[in-house]
Write a structure and sequence with these properties.
324 residues; alpha/beta; eight-stranded mixed beta sheet; 27% strand; binds N,N,N-trimethyl-histidine
Length: 324
């Protein structure tokens, strides 16, 4: 059974987008929020990234889920409510739902800002008979609140925050977000957190600046989106994609670098932006962690860690936390 909250308002309106763009391009250095990378085309490009040999997060996580999912849910009592924050194509939660066939009733809540991602996920999960699925087109925070308000009083909730999506938050925001997840849960509920680990710089760079140029297209699509939605006049060929490993901050950064001095007007954001040659827009941070750091983050937010699984080839981790 599939249901979508059809009357849900758009997760972000053009005016919010315009306001954020105007504010963040006035910062030094210029910035744009990474959540805006995921429009229809952006979500498809991200799916393509996940299939690239150099971007190993998705496959490493899939291997861990396929191998250990029984163990992951073993201590959680029926009935189970699964909530996935940022469901992407829905393949991960499908793997988990498969291994939950013995549980009589499972409801699944999918939360994503992208309608494309929700459609894909609902199609993936629609094939499974033993679960009911509800999609929420919403921000993580709103979606989590909606899912929590709809759970039965007897249900155990397992929140999935996978794919190293946590890596897009800077440390204070990651803390706030984990605390917010904890607040939506009751003692005994669980959080399964996927987080990418620190690895050699060359491996990190090639994952975010791939030889096929898919990540470059993913990044530049943000400028295309500004052109289409805010009527901007970015010349896409006048910007280069750049990925850097910032070891001091433990993050990979994506930038869009202006090849030359240029002015860009963004009518719907009510501004004109001036670029010096080599000046960049910072579009994303992907933080990388040590296994211990992840455990500590969860503890600081009111969880205890029950178990951690590490994929040692790609250096990727899944950690199961229990709300205290
Ligand atoms: C979906 C945020 C986990 O940071 O690795 C992939 C997005 N950016 N390639 C990540 C992304 C460039 C991805 N997350």
């Amino acid at each position: 059974m599939i249901e979508t909250t059809a009357a849900a308002p758009p997760a972000e309106s053009v005016t919010d987008f315009a306001r954020d763009v105007r504010r963040d391009l006035a910062l030094t250095p210029k910035q744009l929020q990474s959540k805006y990378l995921y429009n229809g085309l952006g979500s498809c490009l991200f799916e393509a990234i996940c299939r690239l040999p150099w971007y190993r997060i998705t496959r490493a996580e899939g291997r861990l889920l396929a191998r250990w999912s029984d163990q992951m849910v073993a201590g959680l009592s029926d009935p189970l409510t699964l909530v996935e924050l940022g469901c992407g194509s829905g393949e991960k939660i499908a793997v988990l739902a498969e291994s939950l066939r013995s549980h009589r009733r499972i409801s699944v809540h999918l939360i994503d800002i992208s309608p494309t991602a929700l459609e894909l996920s609902e199609r993936t999960l629609g094939r499974l008979e033993h679960i009911s699925v509800m999609g929420h087109r919403a921000t993580y925070e709103d979606g989590l609140r909606r899912a929590a308000s709809e759970r039965g009083s007897a249900a155990t909730m397992l929140v999935l925050f996978l794919g190293s999506n946590i890596g897009n938050f800077d440390p204070p925001a990651a803390h706030d977000f984990l605390t917010e997840i904890r607040r939506a849960l009751r003692p005994g509920d669980a959080l399964l957190l996927g987080a990418d680990l620190i690895k050699p710089a060359a491996d990190l760079i090639v994952a975010y600046d791939d030889p096929l140029g898919v990540t470059a297209a993913f990044n530049k699509n943000l400028l295309l989106r500004l052109n289409r939605e805010l009527l901007a006049d970015f010349d896409l060929s006048a910007f280069d994609h750049r990925a850097v490993w910032n070891a001091a901050e433990s993050r990979v950064e994506m930038h869009l670098v202006s090849r030359r001095a240029q002015n860009v007007s963004i009518p719907r954001a009510g501004c004109t932006v001036e670029f010096a040659p080599g000046e960049a827009i910072w579009t994303e941070s992907s933080y990388k962690y040590t296994p211990e750091e992840i455990v500590a983050r969860g503890q600081q937010a009111g969880f205890r860690s029950r178990q951690q699984w590490i994929e040692s080839d790609a250096r990727f981790s899944l950690t199961l936390f229990i709300a205290e």
